[in-house]
Amino acid sequence: MCGIFGYVNYYVQRSRSEIVDTVLNGLARLEYRGYDSAGLAIDGDKPDEVLLFKEVGKVAALRKLYASSKINNDRLFDSHVAIAHTRWATHGRPSPINAHPHRSDPNNEFVIVHNGIITNYLALKALLTSKGFVFESDTDTECIAKLCKYVYDLNKDSARPLDFTALAKLVLRELQGSYGLLIKSVHYPDEIIATRKGSPLLIGIKTEQKLKVDFVDVEFPELPDITVANNIPTITTPESAGLSNLTVPHLMTSNLLMPMDGSDLRRSQSRAFISEEGTPMNAEFFLASDPASIIEHTKKVLYLEDDDIAHIYDGELHIHRVRREAGEPAIRSIQTLEMELNEIMKGSFDHFMQKEIFEQPESIINTMRGRIDFEKKTVTLGGLSSYLGTIRRCRRIIMIACGTSYHSCMATRAIFEELTEIPTTVELASDFLDRRSPVFRDDTCIFVSQSGETADSMLALQYCAERGALTVGIVNSVGSSISRQTNCGVHINAGPEIGVASTKAYTSQYVALVMMALLLSDDSISKYERRTSIIDGLSKISSQVEEVLKLNDTIRGIAETDLAQQKSLLLLGRGYQHATALEGALKIKEISYMHSEGVLAGELKHGVLALVDATMPIIFLATHDSLFPKVMSAVEQVIARSGNPIILCNKGESALSKLGKTYRTLEIPQTVDCLQGLLNVIPLQLMSYWLAVKKGYDVDFPRNLAKAVTVE
Ligand code: UD1
Ligand code: BG6
């Protein structure tokens, strides 16, 4: 998905090459999110000159483009603002023109980078075109840059100059949709605006001197604010323009002028950034959509809230809001990132995905750390403690997610129902929203997401929250939108996951959900034995994962010699292993581009059997549980049709001997039925990895896919 990186130095002298290196390295840290073009904006050598560099492809291509320019790299800047972006094409194909930063005009008076979607861009574009603006890209974003200039020009001759915050407020209230946004302008040299709505943005802060306080005050307007004073009239655009469902702001000139009595022009001091002498301190700011690109510079970060307008100038960070709602906090705290740089480095591995697969013995432990007492057989989830009563009393549980996270819900649904005795359904976020599924106040809705930013899951969360349901997050990214907007939740603590194909997040989500089910049922005596056996199973699971990882070479061999030439692959499982089959098939599709299908083994005879012959590769998930005999009957049906399946089974499985010799096995240690999927999925992760490597594909950056899909 798109990535934003901005860098501001205030009285910290940096050469142009250092500045460009900082932003390009920042972009490179965001590469894992998936993108198809990149760009940056920096100051030129002439006054009021801003230079843009934009290129299709990787950050390395942008670096090359920059290197080929004849620009003076040694020029020193005491203070400077640079903005940069990686774009994942939505509106308009990948091209230098469509890449960000976008500009207001050929002189680059305003340049912006944007994540998200401006839903009323067609109406804004039509209006700005009628005012003489010439659009050069196919993007929705460009209208923001042009709107900035339009508003600036309207106000530039007024008695009081418009400051950057006031300008941003006037612009933002015309935008509909979602955004993480940085604005740079020749009219406000060495200043930057950063703002967000529904798209993450955080600011890293680096100062030599200690900050005076570890928070930033939120500044609210004192006089009647401009939005209330000039309530924006809206019009509905004509259907003929293809905008039948859009309500667009009516850009009346009066709305875009700063009121003469506006108090927003007053500049205040930001307490955190004042030195002992009472003057602003030298400072650097790193603005990004993802903490992974900030961590190497500083651990002090401030997460912006939706509708915050951050304005950095004179070495100070100010946070503004257009209005104050009752009970709204008046500060944003400056937090310390817990992430370490080595967590986002590949180390000795060839790919992030490989590293993350092999990290699972540890990441699973981290998910359970401090939460399970294996002696006393108890589970504590700090994030849920105040809500346990409400969840236990709820009418039903709805688990909502996308992709791999959805599979972790499927994998644990049965144990949730068994232990909690609360009806539990599992929903794909997009389908749940499409159906406008009924949700009630006494429902508990669990949102499972690695990134915590997936648009479909976020929209479903808002939908459920509006209907009064309790919302619970199972999220990896601390500080993400889902983590912050749910009533409560559990961080899975798997550490940053960089590979687009999710691996360690899946197993940690799985463990977190099982822990939640165990916790919800800890008041039930009848479930005691079952709970105890699951907790004992969890105590051994990490070492069993290590054992499964020893199959790496065998699986590599199977992938390279037997499967890499195939066009298609079927994975069959039932009960707990249906989710494993689906997740294995997804991994294989995602990174090896091979068609693979996860099938419920019980459905084999209802259609899929038609595909089976001696050449069709099939993997059976046939580890031992109550459904094992039924899975074996499916295996027999396949063998009867000359199939040569690969069977994932428990060590020394005797029932296979009657099958003859037309199959191969991968032997997996046995655990409790509801945890077996944690072990069975690992060979499939490895198989997808080795298939992709064998085919020469870019494992960490599969084509057309993004790590976090922040558009619907
Ligand atoms: C918390 C701390 C952890 C510390 C531990 C010690 C954080 C992020 N975690 O972990 O560093 O070691 O206390 O007691 O500070 N939440 C949501 N939605 C979500 C996920 C979480 O609302 O999707 C909320 C939880 O309800 C909770 C908070 O975020 O209020 C932290 O959750 P979590 O990290 O899971 O809590 P602890 O395990 O207690
Ligand atoms: C994307 C990713 O499609 O989003 C998948 O490519 C992921 O790997 C899915 O499973 C859901 O993401 P998240 O962050 O909500 O778990």
Helical amount: 25-40%
Number of helices, counting only DSSP H or I runs of 4 residues or more: 19
Largest sheet: 8 strands, antiparallel
Ligand species: uridine-diphosphate-N-acetylglucosamine, 6-O-phosphono-beta-D-glucopyranose
Structure description:
The protein folds into three domains: about 5-270 and about 285-335, 4-Layer Sandwich (Glutamine Phosphoribosylpyrophosphate, subunit 1, domain 1); about 340-550, Glucose-6-phosphate isomerase like protein, domain 1 (Rossmann fold, 3-Layer(aba) Sandwich); about 550-710, Rossmann fold (3-Layer(aba) Sandwich), CATH 3.40.50. The protein is about 30% helix and about 20% strand. The protein is built from 19 helices and 32 strands. The longest helix has 22 residues, at about 530-550. The N and C termini lie close together (about 10 Å). Uridine-diphosphate-N-acetylglucosamine binds near residues 475, 478 and 482. The site of 6-O-phosphono-beta-D-glucopyranose (BG6) has 15 residues, from helix 10.
